[in-house]
């Protein structure tokens, strides 16, 4: 079951079905860290990560935070962005906070001690 919350009218969700690959690729293609990353690699990276999408009230995807983790001891936050028109509202903090909560929950749920 997807985790979703609303922050300042924006929806933050870990539902992989909501991710807009075209929007994500369009932003990453102009970023300094992923400009040369092929669309197919981006698609595979999204499939194998915990992704938190950030959606405008219209439903358009306007941000992303991607987490790579073993759900035990390690989590790496990457590909975090918010489209320019939606910045200066504290929106990047919300998907990061949700990803931390989800990671901590999954880590404790899979703990063997």
Describe the 3D structure.
With about 110 residues, this protein is α+β, with helices and mostly antiparallel strands. It has one domain (about 5-110): Gcn5-related N-acetyltransferase (GNAT) (Aminopeptidase). The chain contains 3 helices and 5 strands. It has helices at about 20-30, 40-45, 95-110, and strands spanning about 5, 10-15, 50-55, 60-70, 75-80. A 5-stranded antiparallel sheet has the order 1-2-3-4-5, with helices on both faces. A hairpin with a 2-residue loop joins strand 1 (about 5) and strand 2 (about 10-15). The chain is globular and about 35 Å long. The protein starts with a strand and ends with a helix. The mean pLDDT is about 90.
Give a brief description:
The chain is built from three helices and five strands. The chain has helices spanning about 20-30, 40-45, 95-110; strands at about 5, 10-15, 50-55, 60-70, 75-80.
């Amino acid at each position: 079951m997807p985790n979703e919350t609303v922050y300042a009218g924006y929806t933050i969700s870990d539902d992989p079905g909501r991710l807009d690959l075209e929007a994500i690729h369009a932003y990453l293609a102009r970023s300094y860290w992923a400009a040369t990353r092929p669309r197919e690699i981006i698609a595979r990276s999204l499939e194998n990560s915990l992704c938190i999408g950030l959606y405008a009230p219209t439903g358009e995807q306007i941000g992303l935070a991607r987490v790579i983790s073993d759900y035990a001891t390690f989590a790496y936050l990457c590909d975090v962005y918010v489209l320019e028109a939606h910045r200066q509202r504290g929106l990047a903090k919300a998907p990061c906070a949700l990803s931390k909560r989800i990671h901590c929950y999954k880590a404790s749920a899979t703990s063997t001690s």
